[in-house]
Amino acid sequence: MRAYLDCFPCFLRQTIETSRLITSDEKKIRHIINRVSLLFPDISSEATPPEIGREVYRIIRDETGVIDPYNDIKKKCIEQALSLYPEMKKIINSSEDRLLTAIKLSIAGNIIDFGANPDFELKKDINEILVQKLNISHYQEFCKILKKTKRILYLADNAGETVFDRLLIEELKKPVIYAVREKPIINDATREDAYLSGIHEVAEVISTGCDAPGTILKFCSNEFLEIYKNSDLIISKGQGNYEGLSDEPRPIFFLLKAKCSIIAQDTGVEQGDVMLLKAKNYLIYQ
Amino acid sequence: MRAYLDCFPCFLRQTIETSRLITSDEKKIRHIINRVSLLFPDISSEATPPEIGREVYRIIRDETGVIDPYNDIKKKCIEQALSLYPEMKKIINSSEDRLLTAIKLSIAGNIIDFGANPDFELKKDINEILVQKLNISHYQEFCKILKKTKRILYLADNAGETVFDRLLIEELKKPVIYAVREKPIINDATREDAYLSGIHEVAEVISTGCDAPGTILKFCSNEFLEIYKNSDLIISKGQGNYEGLSDEPRPIFFLLKAKCSIIAQDTGVEQGDVMLLKAKNYLIYQ
Fold first, then answer.
1. Total domain count, chain B
2. Does residue B38 sit at the A interface (CB-CB below 8 Å)?
3. Nearest 5 degrees, angle CA A157-CA A268-CA A219?
4. Alpha carbons within 13 A on the beta-carbon side of B58
């Protein structure tokens, strides 16, 4: 998905939000805003939001020397999610359709995203999503492919959400390769976050090789691309991965909540809606 | 009030919103976004929001050739407000404190502002403000000064709101000079809008000489400044005028609703609150 015009003010807002996590020096933040503003005219109209985000956060890193401003927040999110794990497991155990419930929970886990939505109330949102219907649901097709697949490539999104991913992986009953970001970017999951969430106990953890807040194939490692091309089922979590891969002709199923009006517009839902969405350019021959 | 860092993304958002009123050509709008982004680093940290707004809207005007993109919206707002006039007059006639009710109504009229709040529901908001207490109220001091004043300088804000200003002017029972913007800027009132609202029947209509979306003294005409300096009571409507004049040591009473979090922060209220606020640097010797 190419960035919309409306993404530009949002990137400037995120610049301020992230910079304020690092420093209270308004002059310094103003300087960062200036550098990000000067970057905008150089951004191609073909660029996806995670490509722009990668550049924006590079500037913040360059200017402040802080590589992982969301480190504390990520750790807290993982802790919080781990404390919810037994309760979530019970919900799955007592549900009629374990897989569908686990899918919904993994989308609920996507709410843990300080980048797009700083005011989250986790438990409330989880319960809301569980009773909510998926606004777009390619669940039947997903189940058909899942049945036939030998191995699933699972693209992670945020730290904390990782714990909810583990719950879903446990219901997939197939080998899973779990791909995280190469380096810290916003609150996205890295190898460390995956390990802290216990993912290594249920899947093989790898890196995409990409350090953007979303999967951008041209920045991914050859090792990852090899796995990507040979996967017959890819689960993609969150907005950033959707933005990077929405046009790909691959068997990708996007699990996400439309946190902003732009994603809602692009997927044809209302802001706040949740979905299990098949990649539009993938044709399934059954 | 100096612009806050958070004003920059907001200006970029406004750039897109206003440009979309003029054209659906996304490439053109992207070019405007680029020019506004390049402007940001040159903006002094001392600049007020209306000073920045003046530059932003100049770029939009330069690029599109459209001088008054809000013309149709302004005319509709005035029409809508005029249709409410008899009803508002009745409310004042049947109220215990006519002046206070007229003040509240004139703040309610300030809701007609497509710049900061595109989703307004006029009648609903009017009724809400009428039952609401002013969150900051220097009403007693205002009444004292009003009693002694010979002539009031009234600084207009938006078109449409002008009709509500007329209702207040009719309750002031003193001569009023009503100052509008020199040229069209966003949905702010110009001479034409004041006349269409019938202000000339109850006050002398002048221009501040300034074409920013707020009163910035260094851009005002000498004629206006002469009147400004010799006024012993100034009523200032809306955020833009507040932003331009909040630090002035003059007998200014600001009537406004805090439409954004920044103004709320600057005045010490909650977003959405309404106030009759005396200029903080003006000391009243009674």
1. 2
2. yes
3. 35
4. 9
- Tell me the chain B residues in contact with residue A55 when contact means C-beta distances shorter than 8 Å: none
Task: Report pLDDT digits (tens) over A45-82.
Answer: 999 999 999 999 999 999 999 999 999 999 988 988 89
Q: Which two tokens stand for residue B149?
A: 């004043």
Residues B94 and B196 occupy one common structural domain: yes
- What are the CA-CA distances from residue B152 to residues A68, A114, B179 (Å)? 56, 49, 11
Query: Which of A12, A14, A29, A59 is most worth mutating to test chain B (most B CB atoms within 10 A of its CB)?
Result: A12
Q: Does B118 touch chain A (CB under 8 A)?
A: no
Q: What does the pLDDT look like over A206-217, one tens digit per residue?
A: 999 999 999 999
pLDDT surpassing 70 at residue A87: yes
C-alpha distances (whole Å) from A162 to each of A189, A195, B69 are 7, 9, 48
Q: Is residue B286 part of a domain?
A: no
The secondary structure element, H or E, covering residue B9 is: helix B7-22
The ipTM is 0.90
Note the pLDDT tens digit of each residue in B5-25.
Answer: 999 999 999 999 999 999 999
Q: Are residues B93 and B140 in the same domain?
A: yes
What is the model's pTM? 0.92
User: What range does the domain containing B177 cover?
Assistant: 71-278
Please say whether the beta carbons of A179 and A208 come within 8 A.
yes
Count of C-beta atoms within a 10 Å radius of residue A67: 10
Size of interface A-B (CB pairs under 8 A): 52
List the single residue in B with minimal CA-CA distance to A34: B41
Nearest beta carbon to residue B8 from set A27, A33, A41: A33
Residues B118 and B213 in one domain: yes
A12 CB near a chain B CB, below 8 Å? yes
Tell me what the mean pLDDT of segment A92-108 comes to: 95
CATH number of the domain bearing residue A32: 1.10.8
When CB atoms are compared, the residue of B5, B26, B34 closest to A40 is B34
pLDDT in tens, A215-261: 999 999 999 999 999 999 999 999 999 999 999 999 999 999 999 99
Could you give the CA distance from residue A41 to residue A60 in angstroms, rounded to a whole number? 18
pLDDT at A125 over 90: no
The whole-angstrom distance between A249's CA and the closest CA on chain B is 27
CATH number of the domain within which A264 lies: 3.40.50.10880
Confidence class for position B84, pLDDT limits 50, 70, 90: confident
Q: Is B271 on the interface with A (CB under 8 A)?
A: no
> How far, in whole angstroms, is CA B184 from its chain's centroid?
13
Q: Nearest C-alpha of chain B: how many angstroms from A165? A: 34
Of B29, B37, B45, the CB nearest to A40: B37
Nearest CA in chain B to A20: B5
Q: Would you call B34 and A41 a contact, using CB atoms and an 8 Å cutoff? A: yes
Report the residue of B40, B45, B55, B260 to disrupt the A interface, i.e. the one with the largest count of A CBs within 10 Å: B40
